[in-house]
Amino acid sequence: MCRSITFPEGCRINTLILKIHMSPEYWDQPEVFNPKWFSPEGKEGRNPQAYIPFGSGPKSCIGMRFALMEAKACLVSILRKYRFERSPDTQVS
Ligand code: HEM
């Protein structure tokens, strides 16, 4: 749902990003992590503002690419040292 709101000049606006990320308006079963949501097909038709961990627009995070690269580098160093197995308790949907 889109609404047009006029804000007075100088007014401070806070966005509850978690609320957007957990909104059933954008996500089926928002409490479940589904990696397929982030595939090109999964993103199709979803409002691009529905997932904004690094903010959005001209003031968005300038470290986003660096942070994502760091996360991948961390994952690689963990995977080089350890093997992961699914626990018998893991529920696969
Ligand atoms: C997982 C890691 C990170 C997350 C989730 C994150 C998230 C965010 C968010 C939500 C904002 C505010 C965007 C907005 O106001 O719309 C922001 C701003 C910013 N971030 Fe990050 N950030 C991360 C890592 C980094 C790193 C590694 C750097 C620097 C190396 C960085 C530098 C900045 C700066 C300078 C701003 C302010 C940009 C501005 O006001 O123009 N961030 N970040």
UniProtKB/TrEMBL annotation:
Cite the EC number.
4.2.1.152
The reply on keyword Oxidoreductase is: yes
Primary site of residence:
endoplasmic reticulum
Keywords for this protein? Endoplasmic reticulum, Fatty acid metabolism, Heme, Iron, Lipid metabolism, Lyase, Membrane, Metal-binding, Monooxygenase, Oxidoreductase, Transmembrane, Transmembrane helix
What's an example GO cellular component term for this entry? endoplasmic reticulum membrane
Going by the entry's taxonomy, the superkingdom of the source organism is recorded as: Eukaryota
* Family according to the record: Belongs to the cytochrome P450 family.
Say if the entry is tagged with keyword Iron. yes
> Which InterPro entries does the UniProt record give?
Cyt_P450 (IPR001128), Cyt_P450_CS (IPR017972), Cyt_P450_E_grp-IV (IPR002403), Cyt_P450_sf (IPR036396), Cytochrome_P450_3A (IPR050705)
Q: Which cofactor does it need?
A: heme
User: What is a GO molecular function of this protein?
Assistant: heme binding
Organism of derivation: Amphimedon queenslandica
The residues the record assigns to binding heme are C61
Q: Which GO terms describe its biological process?
A: fatty acid metabolic process
Subcellular location(s) of the protein: Endoplasmic reticulum membrane
Q: Name one Pfam family in it.
A: p450
Q: What is this protein called?
A: hydroperoxy icosatetraenoate dehydratase
Q: Which reaction does it catalyse?
A: (15S)-hydroperoxy-(5Z,8Z,11Z,13E)-eicosatetraenoate = 15-oxo-(5Z,8Z,11Z,13E)-eicosatetraenoate + H2O
